[in-house]
């Protein structure tokens, strides 16, 4: 028990340090980006150095994205809670991914239970969860397919299923899926699912996955309605 407390303290200190470091990294990054941009503009159109500076800028943007995601993981989450409808959060996110879905030939279907009560949540974080999961689902269906979102409610438990007909997940990858930095994508950060897990656990819920390689995957979230 004592060991566990000590471990938790160490983790929390590590989290604070990481969050601090992330802030310190942001400013120099934006300075580097600004000057790289100036440099790029100073070369004429045909100069191949324009391409190099462009790569620098793209890579800085990738780093910034990574850092932004990392902050969600390290930031303590004790503010910004309000009573919200999970269906509404999902309804807000669907239009945001519609373009990407259409480009990938993915059709989105939703079946949302009307009886779900509002629950106390960090709405911005919760939106992030669905954005990450929907993005992953679409990325798993480059040849097109279906993304189905189902919400149900029973015994103070909200169940949300996110089903795709995509590539599926190999059994050996299932247990690594929620680890930070685990990715099978060339341009992936591997932070999306670890952030989802962290956010859902902050809401006293759980997230799990079930997959058939070659057929598709289902991510299931349970959120308690605390009374
Ligand atoms: P990223 O998307 O940056 O790779 P994530 O944490 O969001 O990071 O996902 C980690 C990995 O889990 C992905 O690289 C992919 O291999 C796998 N994955 C996640 N969602 C799905 C899905 N719906 N179908 C198939 N594989 C998935
Ligand atoms: Mg992802």
From TrEMBL:
Boundaries of every Histidine kinase domain copy: 20-227
Assigned EC number: 2.7.13.3
Domain of life according to the entry: Bacteria
Catalyses which reaction(s): ATP + protein L-histidine = ADP + protein N-phospho-L-histidine
Keyword entries, A-Z: ATP-binding, Kinase, Nucleotide-binding, Phosphoprotein, Transferase, Two-component regulatory system
GO molecular function term, any single one: ATP binding
Protein's UniProt name: histidine kinase
Protein species of origin: Koleobacter methoxysyntrophicus
Gene: kinE_1
Full-protein residues shown: 86 to 312 of 312
């Amino acid at each position: 028990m004592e060991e566990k407390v000590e471990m938790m303290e160490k983790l929390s200190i590590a989290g604070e340090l990481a969050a601090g470091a992330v802030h310190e990294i942001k400013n120099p990054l934006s300075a580097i980006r600004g000057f790289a941009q100036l440099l790029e503009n100073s070369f004429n159109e045909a100069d191949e150095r324009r391409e190099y500076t462009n790569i620098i800028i793209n890579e800085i943007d990738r780093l910034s994205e990574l850092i932004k995601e990392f902050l969600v993981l390290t930031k303590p989450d004790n503010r910004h809670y309000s009573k919200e409808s999970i269906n509404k959060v999902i309804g807000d996110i669907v239009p945001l991914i519609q373009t990407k879905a259409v480009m990938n030939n993915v059709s989105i279907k939703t079946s949302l239970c009307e009886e779900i009560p509002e629950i106390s949540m960090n709405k911005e974080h919760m939106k992030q969860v669905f954005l990450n999961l929907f993005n992953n689902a679409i990325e798993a269906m480059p040849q097109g397919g279906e993304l189905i979102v189902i919400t149900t409610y029973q015994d103070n438990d909200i169940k949300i299923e996110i089903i795709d007909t995509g590539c599926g997940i190999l059994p050996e990858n299932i247990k690594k899926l929620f680890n930070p930095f685990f990715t099978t994508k060339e341009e992936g950060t591997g932070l999306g699912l670890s952030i989802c897990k962290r956010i859902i656990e902050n809401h006293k819920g759980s997230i799990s996955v079930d997959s058939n390689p070659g057929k598709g995957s289902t991510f299931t979230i349970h959120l308690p309605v605390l009374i």
